[in-house]
UniProtKB/TrEMBL annotation:
Pfam families: HI0933_like, HI0933_like_1st. It comes from Hyphomonas johnsonii MHS-2. This is Oxidoreductase. Residues 194-345 form the RsdA/BaiN/AoA(So)-like insert domain. Residues 11-397 form the RsdA/BaiN/AoA(So)-like Rossmann fold-like domain. InterPro entries: BaiN-like, BaiN-like_dom_sf, FAD/NAD-bd_sf, RsdA/BaiN/AoA(So)-like_dom, RsdA/BaiN/AoA(So)_Rossmann.
Length: 400
C-alpha cells in the first residue's frame, strides 16, 4: 500500500526559492498562512544575485503590458496593474534599500543585489515562512484536496502548491524543466519554450567579420518584422550581442533576417555629402570614422568593396548613397542563438489559457498555482522580468 500523505503541516508549499517563489511565500506568510519554500539549490535566488551586473535591475518604471511577450498579450495586465513598480519601491524603502535609474526607466540598487535577496528572506521570516534548500523534488501528486510532494528530505503535504521553479535559462545555475513537467502532469499545455534575451551566433563570412571586430559597440536599430529596438549593439567572437540584439532576439524565429540600422536617426548620406562639399580631400575611411568606431568603419568599407583611401572628392554621390544604404539597412541572418547557456530568460512556457490571470491558479486543478518565469509571459530587457516575478507572485499569494 502506498504511504498515506502526512497531515499537512503547511497551508502552502512553494517550489522554487527564486524571485517569484520567495516573494509569493513572504506575502502568504504576512497574510497569516503557514508556508514552506523548497529549492534544490544550495543558495536562494541566485539569479537575483547575478542580475543587472550584480546590482539587480529590479523593475522598470515604464512597465506596461506591451513590454511583455505572450501568446495572450492580455494575460499579464491584471497582475501588473495590481502590483506596480511603485509598490516594489515602497517595499525597498521600508528596508532602506536605495536605488537609481540608469537608462530607459531601468531601476538598479545602489547596494549589491544581495540586498534584495536579504530583503526577500527578511520578509519571509517576518511572515513566519520556512525555507529548505538542497532539497530535490522527486514527485508531486494530488488526491482528496491535498498535494503530496516527495522530496529528498521527506514527504510533504499541503492543500496549496505554488510552482515557481523558473525557466530553462542557465542550466548550470540550477534551471530545470520541473515547472513544465508538473504543468503537463496536471493537463496544462506548454507554449514552445525558446531562449530569449540572448546573443546571436553567425557562421561563415559574417562570423569571421564580426569576430574580427569583437569588442566594438555602436548604436543601432535592430528589427525583425515584429519589433524594433534602438539601443547599443556589441560585436562578439561568436556574432552579435548588446541590448538591441538581446531585445530583438526575443522576437526572432530561426531562419529570419534581422535588419540593423546603424546610426539610427542620422542622415548618413546627407552627412557624407556635406563632408564631401566641406572637406573634399578627406578619405572615405576618415569620413566614416567620424561617424562610427574605426574598426567598424573599415569593416563596412571592406564589405561594400569601397576603397578606404578614396578621397571624398573622387567618390560619386551614388557611391555615398550605396554606402549609406548599407549602413542603414544591413540585413543579417543569424545562424542561431547562444541558447540556454547565456539566455537571460525563457520565452514561451505554461500556456496562460490554463491559468487565472487574477490569481495564477490552475483552471485544471484548484489549489495549484504557477508564477514567475515558468509562465508564458516574457518581459523585455530592463527590469521587466523581475517586475513580472513580483507581480505574478503577489497575484498568486492573493489567490493561495
Ligand atoms: P528563478 O529562476 O529566479 O528561480 C527559480 C528557482 O527555482 C531557483 O532558485 C532554482 O534553483 C529553483 N529550481 C529550479 N528547478 C528546481 C527543481 N527541479 N527543484 C527545486 N528547485 C528548483 N531580469 C530583470 O528583470 N532584471 C535583471 O537585471 C535581470 N538580469 C538577469 C541576468 C541574468 C544573467 C539572468 C540569467 C537573468 C536575468 N534576469 C533579469 C531575469 C530574471 O533573473 C528572471 O526573470 C527571474 O529570476 C525569474 O524569477 P523566477 O522566480 O520565476 O525564477
Amino acid at each position: 500500500m502506498p504511504a498515506a500523505p502526512p497531515s499537512p503541516a503547511f497551508d502552502a508549499v512553494v517550489l522554487g526559492a527564486g524571485a517569484a517563489g520567495l516573494f509569493c511565500a513572504s506575502r502568504m506568510g504576512r497574510a497569516g498562512r503557514k508556508v514552506l519554500v523548497i529549492d534544490h539549490a544550495a543558495k536562494p535566488a541566485e539569479k537575483v544575485r547575478i542580475s543587472g551586473g550584480g546590482r539587480c535591475n529590479f523593475t522598470n518604471i515604464h512597465t506596461a503590458p506591451d513590454r511583455f511577450i505572450s501568446e495572450n498579450p492580455h494575460f499579464a495586465k491584471s497582475a501588473l496593474a495590481r502590483y506596480t513598480p511603485q509598490d516594489f519601491l515602497d517595499l525597498l524603502a521600508r528596508h532602506e534599500i536605495t536605488w537609481h535609474e540608469k537608462t530607459l526607466g531601468q531601476l538598479f540598487c545602489d547596494q549589491k543585489a544581495g540586498a534584495i535577496i536579504r530583503m526577500l528572506l527578511d520578509e519571509l521570516d517576518a511572515g513566519g515562512g520556512e525555507l529548505r534548500l538542497n532539497t530535490q523534488v522527486t514527485s508531486v501528486s494530488h488526491a482528496d484536496g491535498l498535494f503530496t510532494v516527495d522530496t529528498s528530505g521527506g514527504r510533504l503535504a499541503a492543500p496549496k502548491l505554488v510552482i515557481a521553479t523558473g525557466g530553462l535559462s542557465i542550466p548550470k545555475m540550477g534551471a530545470s524543466g520541473l515547472a513544465y513537467d508538473i504543468a503537463r502532469q496536471f493537463g496544462h499545455a506548454i507554449v514552445q519554450t525558446r531562449a530569449a534575451l540572448v546573443p546571436f551566433v553567425f557562421t561563415g563570412a559574417d562570423h569571421d567579420d564580426f569576430a574580427s571586430i569583437s569588442g566594438v559597440a555602436c548604436d543601432v536599430r535592430a528589427s525583425t518584422d515584429r519589433a524594433a529596438f534602438d539601443e547599443a549593439m556589441l560585436f562578439t567572437h561568436r556574432g552579435l550581442s548588446g541590448p538591441a540584439i538581446l531585445q530583438v532576439s526575443s522576437y526572432w524565429s530561426p531562419g529570419e533576417p534581422v535588419t540593423l540600422t546603424l546610426l539610427p536617426g542620422t542622415d548618413i548620406a546627407g552627412t557624407l555629402k556635406t563632408a564631401k562639399r566641406d572637406r573634399p580631400q578627406q578619405t572615405l575611411a576618415s569620413a566614416l570614422e567620424a561617424l562610427l568606431p574605426s574598426r567598424l568603419a573599415h569593416l563596412v568599407l571592406s564589405r561594400t568593396h569601397t576603397t578606404p583611401t578614396s578621397r571624398l572628392a573622387d567618390t560619386s554621390h551614388a557611391t555615398l548613397d550605396t554606402l549609406a544604404g548599407a549602413l542603414s539597412s544591413w540585413v543579417v541572418r543569424p545562424a542561431g542563438t547562444e541558447g540556454w547557456r547565456t539566455a537571460e530568460v525563457t520565452a514561451g512556457g505554461i500556456d496562460t489559457s490554463g491559468l487565472s490571470s487574477k490569481t495564477m491558479e490552475s483552471r485544471h486543478l484548484a489549489g495549484l498555482y504557477f508564477i514567475g518565469e515558468c509562465v508564458d509571459v516574457t518581459g523585455w530587457l530592463g527590469g521587466y522580468n523581475f517586475q513580472w516575478a513580483w507581480a505574478s507572485a503577489a497575484a498568486g499569494a492573493e489567490g493561495a
